[in-house]
Write a structure and sequence with these properties.
about 290 residues, alpha/beta, eight-stranded mixed sheet, two-stranded antiparallel sheet, about 40% helix, rod-shaped
């Protein structure tokens, strides 16, 4: 209206009727609570309030246009971000393949990665510090914190990861195909992350003994190094063993089998965000490979 000079001219530019423009102006004046136009015969000019609104309108419209373009880019996976948190063995095995595929298919989507073991990674998801969390729990055991640990989250199953026993290459059991936990009852143990440590104690106690844990470390290469140096035995997930150059150790199948479930977690609202959904898909494909 300000640029056209009249309701009729504005209507022609907008492709609508003159009464429609007039009604919109009346509604705008009601919303503003003050007149925006002065009408004198065929002439229409802006009031001081109308001039102020026109000065700001260009910036507002430009901001709306920029917002629409940015939202469209995010919806079309041409932009956006995903904050991923993963436990270390997932970071070195599943994550690189998934993120490389995301970068190749959606180069405008930015993905960041930090490491945390569950349950901390799950807490980060609920606290809004990440969008996707890789987590695990052991088969046959109740989730930490009770059955509701993952109940309010979107759970994308990725794979089942078996645990294997690790002994030094010169160990009496190094040549065995399988080993029962009870056969390792008198050995010194090297334990992993806190959740893995608690599970190790549970498995050993189910086999009739309490493990003597001489060393505890969250660093899987350190666990393998300590075993290789002859300082004890350990139980690690296959995914963790794959991520480490296991020198000086023998990997043995456990009897009975012990497994952990590996999943990707997100919130229900986040699961509908295109970049988050695409990341979940790529993690699932990486696990399948």
């Amino acid at each position: 209206m300000a640029g056209a000079g009249s309701f009729s001219a504005a209507a022609r530019e907008l492709g609508c009727t003159q009464p429609a423009v007039s009604q919109q102006m009346k509604a705008l004046e009601q919303s503003a609570g003050t007149p925006l136009l002065i009408r004198a015969g065929r002439e229409t000019r802006l009031t001081q309030a109308g001039e102020a609104l026109v000065r700001h309108a260009a910036g507002i419209l430009a901001g709306l246009t920029a917002a629409e373009e940015e939202v469209a880019a995010i919806a079309g996976l041409r932009a956006g971000r995903v904050r991923l948190v993963s436990f270390p063995s997932g970071s070195s095995t599943l994550v690189p393949t998934a993120l490389a595929a995301m970068r190749a298919e959606h180069p405008g989507t930015r993905i960041s990665l930090v490491e945390a073991e569950p349950p901390r990674s799950v807490e980060m998801l609920r606290e809004g510090d990440c969008d996707v969390a890789l987590a695990f729990r052991y088969a046959g055991s109740a989730p930490e914190g009770g059955p509701s640990e993952w109940d309010d989250l979107v759970v994308r199953p990725l794979l089942t990861d078996r645990l294997v026993g690790l002994v030094p290459e010169g160990h009496r059991l190094a040549g065995a195909a399988r080993v029962g936990m009870a056969e390792l009852a008198d050995e010194p143990w090297i334990a992993g992350c806190p959740r893995c440590r608690r599970h190790l104690v549970d498995v050993c106690e189910a086999a009739g003994f309490t493990p003597r844990i001489d060393f505890a470390t969250d660093d899987y290469p350190a666990v393998v190094g300590l075993v290789g140096a002859g300082l004890g035995v350990a139980v690690l997930p296959e995914l963790a063993v794959e991520s480490v150059r296991a020198k000086g150790v023998a990997a043995l199948a456990l009897e009975p089998e012990v497994e952990r479930e590996i999943v990707a977690l997100t919130l229900a609202d986040l699961a509908r965000v295109p970049a988050v959904a695409a990341t979940l898909d790529q993690l699932e494909r990486a696990a399948a490979r």
